[in-house]
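Two quick folds needed for the group meeting slides. Do the first one here.
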Amino acid sequence: MTSIWPPRQVLGDAGTGIGPNGAASAADWAAAPERSNRLALRVMAWIAVHLGRRVARLVLHPITLYFLCFAPTARRHSSRYLQRALGRAPTLADRYRHFHTFASTVLDRIYFVRGAMHEFDLQLSGGDLMDATLAEGRGAFLLGAHIGSFEALHAVGENRPGMRVAMVMYPDNARLIHGVLQSVAPHFKLGIIPIGRPGSTLAIRDWLDGGGLAGLLGDRFLPADPARSGSVTLPFLGVPARFTDGPLRLAQLLRRRVIFMVGLYRGGRRYDVRFEPLADFRERVDDAGERERLVQQALQAYVARLESLVREAPCNWFNFHDFWKED
C-alpha cells in the first residue's frame, strides 16, 4: 500500500501559531515551520523501534505534560474545542487526554509504516465498500479530517494488494516527521500528489484513472487559494465555522465516488477504521443548479458526520489552531 500522509502538524508544532504574539491566523497551519527537535524525534523513533511500543508509550507521558504546560496557544484552542465537543468545561484530565491521544497516534505512525500490524487491535467497517470501489477500477476520493490516525488505513491495505492511496496535499507540511519515519522504514514510499502547482488536477485525474485512491482532508480552509475552493460557513459544534467545498467540486469535475474515512484511536492498542459512502458524482449532471445542490448536500453531510465523530471520540480531533477564528 502506498503511503497516505495528511498535512497534520507534528506534536511540537501542534497549533502554536506564527502570527503576532503567537496567535494563529487562518493559514498559519499551512505555513508554520515545524518546531519539533529533530534529535528528540529520532531518539523517540529509536526507542519505539528498539525498545518496543510499551516502553515508548511510557515516554509519552512526560512529553504530554511538557506540551500541556508550555504550549499555551495549543492549550487554549484545545480547551475551546473540548468545551464545545463535551458540552461542558473541560477538566485538566480532559485536556491531558487530548494531548496524549495526539501523541499516541504520532508514535503509532512508526509502527504502521513499518508494517507492525500485530501491535494493534484493529476493527474495520466498510471493507465491502472498498472492495467494490477497487474492483471498479476507476479510483475514488477518500475524504477525511484531522481526526484519529490516517496511517491506521495501512491495515486495510495489508489484505488488499491492489489498494494504492496517495495523499493530495501541500508537500512541505510535516517534512521533518516524514524524514524521521522514512529513516525507520526505508522501504516505505510516501505517496503524495502535490497541490498548488500547475498540472495538479491532471495528476490527480491520471492517478484515479489508474485505479488509485486520492486522500484529502476537508476540515482546514486555505483563504490563499480561492480559485481552487470556496469558503462555506456551516454550524459546527454549535458555532459557525468555515469549510472548503474544493475536494467535492474536484470529485464532481472528475466524476468520481467520494468515501468518508476515519481511523479513530480508542486507547491502548485499539483502532476503529471506518469507510462510509459520502457522495457519488460518477453520473454526469448537465444542470448547473443541480450540480451545485449536490456539492452543498455532500458538504453538509461531511460536516454532520465530522460533528458526530468528534462528539463520539472528542480527544481524536487534532486541529490545535484557531479553527473558529476567535483570536
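Then this one, please, same format:
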Amino acid sequence: MTTVGLIGLGAMGSGMASSLRRAGHSVQVFDVRREVAETFTHAGGTAHDTLASLGAACDVVVSVVVNAAQTEAVLFGDGSTPGCTASMKPGSVFVMCSTVDPNWSVALEARLEALGLRYVDAPISGGAAKAASGQMTMMTAAKPEAYAVAEPFLNAMAAKVYKLGDSAGAGSKVKIINQLLAGVHIAAAAEAMALGLREGVDPAALYEVITHSAGNSWMFENRMAHVLAADYTPLSAVDIFVKDLGLVLDMARASKFPLPLSSTAHQMFMQASTAGFAKEDDSAVIKIFPGIELPKGKA
C-alpha cells in the first residue's frame, strides 16, 4: 500500500492533507510549526518531527511550501538537519507544488533522478477553500513512471489534474502564465476600485454593478470583497505576487519577450510591499493609491 506524506500545512497544504485523508489515505505530515502538525493528527494521520522521518515512511511526498529555496531545504536539508531525500526509498516520488522558475524545476528532476527518485512538477491553483474541498487545479508534468505512483493522490487533492508534458517544466510554465493573469487582474481590480473611490462612487454599489457586468473578473469579485470588508488578512500576501510576477518577468526576459502589463503590476506590488503592506492580503495593493478613503468594513 502506497503511503503519502505532505510537507507544509499552510492555507493550501492543510486543505490538501484533509482531502487526502477524506479520500481514505493514511496521511503523514510535517510542518515547521509542530503544533500545527499535531492538530492535524487529531482526526487521523501521523505527524513527524523531522523531514527525514517523513521521507523514510512515505512512497509519495507532496511539498506545499512557498518557493524554490524552501523546497531545496525540504529536499536536501538546511546544513544542520537532513532533508527528506536523505531517507526516501529508491523509486519514491516527490511532488512539488510551489510556483518556481521552470528551469529550476527541470534541473530538480535531473537531480532527483540521480538519487533514484521520481518527480512530479505540480504547481497548484484555486485558493484555500478549493484546496480544502479537493476542487483545486494542478498543472503537472512528469515521466509516466512518476504518474503511475502519484496519480491517485493527485486526483484526491484536485478536481482538475492537467498533464502538460512527460518531463518537468511545462507545469511550472503554465502556472507562471496563470500568475501573470492573476497578478494583473488583482492590480487592475484595485485600480478600478481606487478610481471609483476617488470619484465618490459608493464602493458597494460599484462592486455590485461590476460583478454583474462585462468588466468583472474572478479576481475583482474575490479580492475587492476583501477591500469592502476592510479585511486584509493574508490568504495570499502582497509579497507572493512580488515573487510570482518576478518569476513571470524572469521567464520572459530570458527570451526577450515584452510584458508591459506584467511589469506595471509587478511595480505596483513592489510599491505596496515597500510601503509596509508586504504581509497583508494581496488586495492591499489598493493602498498605494493616494487621495482615497478606503472602506472601513462593518463596525
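Slide caption for protein two: DSSP finds twelve helices and nine strands in the chain.
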